[in-house]
Each structure stands twice: as C-alpha cells, then as structure tokens.
Specification:
With 168 residues, this protein is mostly helical. The protein is built from 8 helices and 2 strands; from the N terminus they run H-H-H-H-H-H-H-E-E-H. A hairpin with a 6-residue loop joins strand 1 (129-131) and strand 2 (138-139). Helix 1 (3-22) packs antiparallel against helix 7, helix 1 runs parallel beside helix 8 (140-167) and helix 3 (41-60) packs antiparallel against helix 8 (140-167).
C-alpha cells in the first residue's frame, strides 16, 4: 500500500464511526451530556469535523467547507466563524447543537474533500513541511496522521456516549 492508500482507508473508517455514532438519534439525544462538563455527541462530531476541515484545507491550500459551502450558516451557532472547538469551556460546548442530518452532511462533505485530497498525494508529498512552528517541523504526513488520531479519539467518545444514551 502507498501512504495515500493508507490515509484514504483511515479517513474512510472514521466516517463509518461517525455515522454509527450519529444515525438515528434525535437532536435531544445528540445533545445529551453525561454531566455538565461532558461533551455530547453533537459537539464531538462537530469538533472533529471542524478540525479535519480546518487542517486539511490548510495543507491543501483550499478554503474550509465550513465557510465556502455555507455550513457555518446551516449550523447557526453563536461561535466565531474560525472556531473549531479547541479549548471550549462547558458553556461553549453546550452551545453546539445540531440534528443528525446537519452533522452528517457536514462530516460527509469534509470527508469527500479529504479523500479527494489524500488520494492525489504521493509518498514524497508526505515529507513536505507544513508547519515550522514545531521542533522538529511538522510534515504533511505527520499532520494528517495527527488529524486521524484526533478524529478517531472523538468518534470513539461519541460512540461511548451513544451507548450511554441508548441505555438511559
């Protein structure tokens, strides 16, 4: 397998996890919080999608779908347009609500753009430095693996919360 094929497979698996965590739940169930400091499914999926959209658009040199495809308006959140959820306080987490169709529509659009981008990468592309603020500098391959790791963690958390929601 090439690096591109591995990345394509990994990002595709995240989509399966996201759909499994979200499909069939009501807006109320997607917003359920185990306690006041816990992240609900809606926030977890919105956040992982925002991070993927932000990071992949940056390395691909494209505009985020959040703004270019009008997802910011469809969600209608009171957060800043550049907000990805990083460092959110509990009240900001609670402000992120959405129905399943909106969450999955945004995720699917971002996944489609991500897969189109990574399918076109060569193994040599993955060594390109994309962020020199770190020591060592971050390569494209490292950045994409980082996004995958973050996405998997949040999708797994969403699946766990779904299990709690279904058992209450």
């Amino acid at each position: 397998m090439t690096g591109s094929e591995i990345l394509t497979d990994a990002f595709g698996r995240i989509g399966e996890m996201v759909h499994d965590a979200v499909e069939g739940l009501s807006t109320e169930e997607l917003s359920y919080r185990v306690d006041d400091g816990a992240n609900p499914i809606a926030w977890l999926v919105w956040h992982l999608t925002r991070v993927q959209d932000d990071h992949v658009a940056h390395v691909a040199g494209t505009e985020q779908l959040w703004t270019s495809a009008g997802w910011v308006g469809r969600f209608g959140l009171t957060l800043g347009v550049d907000d990805t959820g990083y460092g959110h306080r509990p009240e900001q987490v609670a402000a992120v609500t959405a129905d399943a169709a909106t969450l999955l529509g945004y995720y699917d659009a971002v996944e489609h753009a991500t897969l189109a981008y990574v399918r076109g990468l060569s193994d040599e592309d993955l060594d390109r430095v994309v962020d020199e603020r770190w020591t060592p500098p971050v390569t494209l391959g490292a950045r994409l693996v980082s996004v995958i790791g973050d996405d998997v963690a949040h999708a797994a958390q969403a699946a766990y919360v779904r299990g709690i929601v279904e058992r209450r």
